[in-house]
């Protein structure tokens, strides 16, 4: 069974780095079968500059097939996904006006997809000491930006069944090892189920946008919104959104 998953977020939220690290051979319960890590790194990583290549804004979507093996309580399941990456620029109204055909193509693709992974950056006020908080927008700006996501999901994503919202770069705002110990998926012995994980993360890290997320939840009777924290520096947190989606894809 295959489900279209849209992978979205603004520029510099860490979308590409998360996807590349998912394919790292140091895996636990999510293994990327195809493409291989080296091939994906060559495609996405600039060795000379030591940075992730930014997704080109000339197109609205970049289709990449990705085959994932997820270890679930019922056993290992292999899932083929269509990873549709998007450049951050497409959320700007100026880009949409200039690239109307590409924007329509993206909306048409959204309508045929059942799942979305939205990657959010942390906001300034939660950044731990030792990091520059001014590399991030403040809480009010962050909330205002999320209001635009709410409008997008309610107006253009009425058929989506699963919305996964990831607050990324968790190593900058929390103790990732402690949180991973709480939230980690273990096929036969997790401390929490999906509802409990969602409730915990929702209360701990998404307080400024509680009402907005509740609005999205009310927009569709079949829509399930789940909140996660992610980091490339903790494999357990990195894998969780994919295991969650995999548990439905494998049915």
User: From the structure provided, what is the oligomeric state, counting identical versus distinct chains?
Assistant: single chain
Distance between the termini: 8 Å
Number of domains: 1
* CATH topology tier name: Rossmann fold
General shape: globular
CATH A-level architecture: 3-Layer(aba) Sandwich
C-alpha-based Rg, rounded: 17 Å
Runs with pLDDT <50, length 5+? none
The counted number of beta strands is 9
CATH domain class = Alpha Beta
Strand order of the largest sheet: 2-5-6-1-7-8-9
What is the fourth-level CATH superfamily? P-loop containing nucleotide triphosphate hydrolases
Helical stretch tally: 9
Secondary-structure element sequence?
EHEHEEEEHHEHEHHHEH
| Biggest sheet descriptor | 7 strands, mixed
Précis, in short:
Helix content is 38%, strand content 22%.
């Amino acid at each position: 069974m295959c489900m279209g998953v849209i992978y979205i977020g603004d520029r510099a939220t860490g979308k590409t780095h998360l996807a590349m690290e998912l394919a790292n051979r140091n895996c636990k319960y999510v293994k990327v079968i195809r493409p291989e890590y080296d091939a994906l790194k060559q495609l996405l990583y600039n060795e000379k500059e030591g940075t992730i290549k930014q997704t080109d804004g000339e197109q609205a979507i970049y289709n990449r097939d990705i085959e994932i093996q997820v270890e679930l309580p019922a056993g290992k399941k292999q899932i083929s996904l269509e990873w549709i990456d998007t450049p951050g620029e497409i959320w700007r109204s100026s880009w949409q006006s200039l690239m109307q055909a590409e924007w329509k193509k993206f909306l048409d693709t959204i309508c045929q997809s059942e799942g979305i992974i939205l990657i959010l950056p942390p906001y300034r006020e939660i950044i731990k000491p030792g990091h520059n908080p001014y590399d991030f927008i403040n809480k009010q700006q962050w909330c205002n930006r999320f209001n635009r996501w709410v409008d997008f999901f309610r107006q253009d994503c009425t058929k989506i069944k699963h919305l996964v919202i990831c607050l990324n770069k968790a190593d900058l705002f929390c103790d990732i090892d402690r949180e991973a110990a709480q939230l980690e998926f273990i096929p036969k012995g997790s401390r929490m189920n999906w509802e409990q994980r969602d409730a915990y993360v929702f209360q701990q890290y998404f307080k400024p946008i509680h009402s907005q997320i509740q609005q999205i939840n009310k927009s569709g009777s079949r829509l399930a919104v789940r909140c996660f924290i992610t980091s490339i520096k903790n494999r357990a947190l990195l894998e969780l959104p994919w295991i969650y989606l995999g548990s439905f894809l494998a049915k």
